[in-house]
């Protein structure tokens, strides 16, 4: 679904879809080794440019920003939101994507992969369950409260929920495409991301491609 279609869903359906965000991620991600986790792709591959490690970490950071924005919009009168530079997070190695060496054993590699992915996945899951429960307590009037984004202009709480519901589904689709390249096509994968198509491979810089900042 597009952002516009998501915005027009009944509130309970939109929030339910937002809460299920982590379920869009292809579970084959945990089959990767650390070198595969760090594999970047050229634009012509059509799978997005970011390595898997960066993609998952970015989704966790985006959710942190989104929830604070929603809570400010409900609590404050038309607050001015801060923009953030997703590529600066990558360049400053916030996701551990620029590291020296790999584990010298299968067990060590597995431990490092789980350490890298597990924390980010847990953050996304926990934040979405917590925020989802809170969002269900809001009135329609509260969901229509505004905040001012410095680039996108006025945004309602409902628009923010729809935007970040789309955001993780957008990235999940590219995660599945990366996994198809790295480990081969999955048999009978039922991830929601597989049912969608996307014409672009992300931002030219290798970034999000859907303006999550």
Q: Number of helical segments? A: 8
Number of domains: 1
What is the CATH architecture term? Up-down Bundle
Quaternary assembly = single chain
Order of helices and strands: HHHHHHHEEH
The gross shape turns out to be elongated
Give the tally of β-strands.
Answer: 2
- Through-space gap between termini: 20 Å
Largest sheet: 2 strands, antiparallel
CATH classification, class level: Mainly Alpha
The averaged pLDDT comes out at 89
Q: Estimate the strand proportion.
A: under 5%
What strand line-up does the widest sheet have? 1-2
The CATH H-level homologous superfamily: dinb family like domain
CATH topology: Four Helix Bundle (Hemerythrin (Met), subunit A)
Could you tell me the radius of gyration in angstroms?
17 Å
Strands, helices and their partners?
Blueprint: H1 3-7, H2 11-19, H3 34-37, H4 52-75, H5 86-91, H6 106-135, H7 140-143, E1 146-149, E2 153-156, H8 157-183
Antiparallel strand pairs: 1-2
Short account of what is shown:
The chain has 213 residues and is mainly α. It has 8 helices and 2 strands. Mean pLDDT is 89; it is low at 189-205.
